[in-house]
Amino acid sequence: MLIVMKPQATEEDVRRVCRKIESMGYRPHPMPGAQRTAIGITGNPGPLEPAEFDTLPGVAEAIPVSKPYKLVSREVKNEDSVIRVKVGDSKDSFVTFGGRELAVIAGPCAIESREQAFAAAEKVRKAGALLFRGGAFKPRTSPYSFQGMGEEGLKILAEVRRQFGLAIVTETIDPENCDLVEQYADVLQVGARNMQNFSLLKRVGRSPKPVLLKRGMSATLEEFLMAAEYILSEGNYSVILCERGVRTFADHTRNTLDLSVIPAVRHLSHLPIIVDPSHGTGRRDKVTPLARAAVAAGADGLIVEVHADPDRALSDGYQSLFPDQFAELMAEIAAIAGVLGRTTAQSTTGVRGSGLGVRG
Amino acid sequence: MLIVMKPQATEEDVRRVCRKIESMGYRPHPMPGAQRTAIGITGNPGPLEPAEFDTLPGVAEAIPVSKPYKLVSREVKNEDSVIRVKVGDSKDSFVTFGGRELAVIAGPCAIESREQAFAAAEKVRKAGALLFRGGAFKPRTSPYSFQGMGEEGLKILAEVRRQFGLAIVTETIDPENCDLVEQYADVLQVGARNMQNFSLLKRVGRSPKPVLLKRGMSATLEEFLMAAEYILSEGNYSVILCERGVRTFADHTRNTLDLSVIPAVRHLSHLPIIVDPSHGTGRRDKVTPLARAAVAAGADGLIVEVHADPDRALSDGYQSLFPDQFAELMAEIAAIAGVLGRTTAQSTTGVRGSGLGVRG
Amino acid sequence: MLIVMKPQATEEDVRRVCRKIESMGYRPHPMPGAQRTAIGITGNPGPLEPAEFDTLPGVAEAIPVSKPYKLVSREVKNEDSVIRVKVGDSKDSFVTFGGRELAVIAGPCAIESREQAFAAAEKVRKAGALLFRGGAFKPRTSPYSFQGMGEEGLKILAEVRRQFGLAIVTETIDPENCDLVEQYADVLQVGARNMQNFSLLKRVGRSPKPVLLKRGMSATLEEFLMAAEYILSEGNYSVILCERGVRTFADHTRNTLDLSVIPAVRHLSHLPIIVDPSHGTGRRDKVTPLARAAVAAGADGLIVEVHADPDRALSDGYQSLFPDQFAELMAEIAAIAGVLGRTTAQSTTGVRGSGLGVRG
Amino acid sequence: MLIVMKPQATEEDVRRVCRKIESMGYRPHPMPGAQRTAIGITGNPGPLEPAEFDTLPGVAEAIPVSKPYKLVSREVKNEDSVIRVKVGDSKDSFVTFGGRELAVIAGPCAIESREQAFAAAEKVRKAGALLFRGGAFKPRTSPYSFQGMGEEGLKILAEVRRQFGLAIVTETIDPENCDLVEQYADVLQVGARNMQNFSLLKRVGRSPKPVLLKRGMSATLEEFLMAAEYILSEGNYSVILCERGVRTFADHTRNTLDLSVIPAVRHLSHLPIIVDPSHGTGRRDKVTPLARAAVAAGADGLIVEVHADPDRALSDGYQSLFPDQFAELMAEIAAIAGVLGRTTAQSTTGVRGSGLGVRG
């Protein structure tokens, strides 16, 4: 059930509806929009009676929602969500996902040392990226592979933020681990293998930090959106979706990047979606063409692996761009963004995004 | 590196090799076999020098291991592993996975009430099953679906064990939750969506209870075995693999059951493998034919959903067998097992399995 | 539209309905059943008016058919179709597909020489197979691979029939080629790559010979049945379906054998379905377990590659069974067939199959 | 084996090598390049001795070729192939595939009437397309679906060429049918379902007309290139590859468009590759984003379904663009092409393409 308020409804009207929902034992999710507020209801075991609500003051309509996803859907919130991420340590500086600007996250697969992280950070910052990626906890197929530096790596990331004014995107791998990671990260990343780790989804849903949710290797669009729904249903509405390739029979890339999911998400959901062409292809020479393609297909940003010295990387070096390649990529996607009436985020100060983004 | 001891090697010879490995900073995994003991080494960053070991007393051979999986592989342990599960509350009564006998786990998808659990338990026990399945914690695609009864459900399962003498197989969904579940379960189930939840794998790897590990929806055989390797590398060697269907384009079943993985696992690993035809097909009318097929392909057992009243089940009722169908299935698989020189476990007392199973 | 005649309807009643259909510009397909005749209509651009037909003498019902497949469906013909194939050169000796008996087709992938064909034929005949497979025209991924012996190979197959009393199953690769192949074959095989070669389907649909139709590598069940529908719609109702594995991400076998398609076909269609575990797995050590599984899942037969000397085969030798392995397989599937109340066809004379098979 | 000639080698040197190859019973494929000629050899059963050739006058090198594809590979011909297609009925007017310019093919799925074809042709010509698509023979999943107008449709296509100066791209469905289609088409299309119809591949390989080869629904890159190899090995080097989506578990589009195949083809082969976003997505609202993405990923062109009145189309109307949408698409891809240093072909006269294209 979705309660759509009238444009002229008052704050008190909204609160009254919420109280009503709570009194029935369910959970209200007020979502203020540009024109008017909508209120999602979760926790109800079955369909509700519209008449319970549409007779209350300020209510325009009570719509039974048939889709399994509610809070992530455009039925509940029609305007694009614009997720703001604080950049660096200054207060009024941030980057947005889901507005006119494309956000680019770049950095190494894993943090391997202070030196390595700083070398990469300097390069990606110089090329114009405002967000830095790098894993301190790495989910690895083999128990014998490098599993990340742990908290040591998180501390290096914190230094990167201070030194280079970059926002930090890093992965959290289980609920307990999240307690630690959210102290350091600006954006919590949930990896593809954990897309249906529901305990973790609930945990990041209670975090104040935005969440970057990667699509699982064999997740349908519905499952992907339902995973995001888990996070929103716990109260965290700042979710950035990320396509990173799905598993198919094709063997010329590690995964098959499914760019059609971009317009498909846009159609169904208000959440922003970015693309990871590094894991999506698994090979350096395909990263740039597919990154360009992602932007042309309408992605709200990219997450790209860049290593100052890829051949010495401890993990996934063969899919990391060289710094020069990344700088070239930034120039190309800026040009393509322009064709779609968008720009790439380049500066780090000033209020950006109105909370109600317009997409090309 | 794998150290193969001579048949006549003494206990002290084995201990000496283990001490040597520990002194190098690695971890020894002695695995006693019928003829002789093999010792796996984990924790080493790269290849070791065979000469360090094959000059020690009692050592037959030091074999460099090239495959990414070690402890799960037949190179490390050639004989089939036979996993013993205590049945009911008596001490010397158990059922085995991986030996001559087929083990059948049956019961409802989720525990919904004491009444429902008891009704199912009575039926499956009567039809000859010795292990009872039923989820108290359910990983569900939607946050709004029934998520299980929680500890209440576990308590009902404990009653089922006492009342019917059935061993309990139930799912654990995150490391913290495992603390609770392992107090009640005889076998800890790790679901398909958690096959690469490495934090959970490590946690169950430190449990004294056997683990039923389901294959992920898009897991390759190597990834499946590496997930098991995580568990073994933490010291728990009692892992039962379970094929439950993979995700493909085919839309006449919910998943495509990949029975060819049975001989493939058998070739590479000493671990037992069973099949879940309920989730593997998602439709009641296909469960029995595919269950028969699994046994004919050489599976070490089955896990089957049975509900005393499937049409009223809160989850996945359409794939649960009626009790009569299950009884018929038990008769059919007993006959097919006979063709392969195997039997279905029928009684619950007496020492069964020699620790070194022989497969047909 | 499907016209179901009354049990007591006369031949003339049936002819009258057919004339009516023809007079409307469509095509009637009378299909005599055990109890009564049904008449399918094809060629109509859209739904027809039931009242046009159910007022005619002898008509019980005129049923609008909603499924895209008509002639292959159980709605049109409820009884299992039993396809009879003449065995050897004697008149009253045949083998059936779709009845109580399982039919086994065996032989080398490609005919390479008279000597090779005879060696294989002798072995498979001795082990109890009544149908011989062997390609004279081979569709090969590479234009530089051995493409088969052509008509020379067909002549050798004719000799095999005379010498060993085996029915010949061999592939036809295009409509023109079918003119030649049908002179030699007892069963025309349409390969997986040609499952949607509609020109070829129409051509074999006009042949008097039964057709073995292999499922395409990425064909859904509906596409598979619609390919068969092409053949039936041209008037040839003797179609044997064959599952041979589908393409998935899984890399431990060449294809993933989808045995769940057996009960799914059985539910929707009256046509028999057999399984090819050789192409379905691509590896010798998996052929026998999957062949057993296919029979246990309810397959009406098998097509298996057997080579007297697999290591010297010009194509696909690594998936061919040795003669001894095949003999053992025949014994195992006979035992499993027994569990399902079926038998394997063993002798070559006597009228077998009533036209209205009963399946276990 | 590949014979690379010296830059200064004479015509007679090339002929001498070819005669030598023929005398050995094999087939020479001289391929003149910008700098020098290479000569492929096919028909040899196994590796040849380099010394047989590299001692002949004018020969720089004799390279053993290990890949299964030869003639399509960059090892044999390093420069991009530029395929020229005559446009309209004038002699010196053509469009190119594989050079700096993008080629766009547009038109309805099937030719339904002269009126419908002309309406679409006028619109797509006006928007800047130089090639017209439209099926006269349609391979359809159901035998009861509209199968195309046949030769009547081809005649309408010929009128479209005369009237609008558009080159005609249309599908041929079997070898015999090709005799007819090649009289009317400027480019012969081989559909996805026929990608491994080897009889058809051989037939179009003997045609003087360029061939548009669509990737099969589950074809690996190697199989795709080998299908092209069949065509080249018969002497027709004018092959345009076309990605049209592959079959995966994802259900939000009809197929999953695999744009990573573009850089992958570019790396291995000299042949041009275009993209079909209409069949690749199956839904109108995803055609434009994916078409832009294809160009950004480096595609050499597009084939797009445009219907003057999609809602009335007899086949696949829901994936056809409206004329206005197509005009907008043309503007967008021209802008994106500019970012990559390419242009969209806009005029129809003058010699375009040097035979040695340069790609951005």
Could you characterize what this model shows?
- The first copy, chain A, is built from ten helices and 15 strands.
- In chain A, helix 5 (198-205) packs across helix 6 and helix 9 (284-296) packs parallel to helix 10.
- The longest helix of chain A has 17 residues, at 323-339.
- Chain A starts with a strand and ends in a 16-residue tail after the last strand.
- In chain A, the strands form three sheets. In chain A, strands 7, 8, 9, 10, 11, 12, 13, 14 and 15 form a nine-stranded parallel sheet that branches. In chain A, strands 2-3-1-4 form a four-stranded antiparallel sheet, with helices on one face.
- The first copy, chain A, has helices spanning 11-23, 114-126, 151-164, 175-184, 198-205, 221-233, 261-268, 277-281, 284-296, 323-339, and strands spanning 2-5, 27-32, 37-42, 59-63, 83-86, 94-97, 101-107, 131-133, 167-171, 187-190, 211-214, 239-243, 273-275, 301-305, 343-344.
- Chain A is elongated.
- By secondary structure, chain A is an alpha/beta fold.
- Chain A has two domains: 2-63, Phospho-2-dehydro-3-deoxyheptonate aldolase, domain 1 (Alpha-Beta Plaits, 2-Layer Sandwich); 83-344, TIM Barrel (Alpha-Beta Barrel), CATH 3.20.20.
- Residues 347-360 of chain A have low confidence and may be disordered.
- At the C-D interface, helix 4, helix 5 and helix 6 of C face helix 4, helix 5 and helix 6 of D.
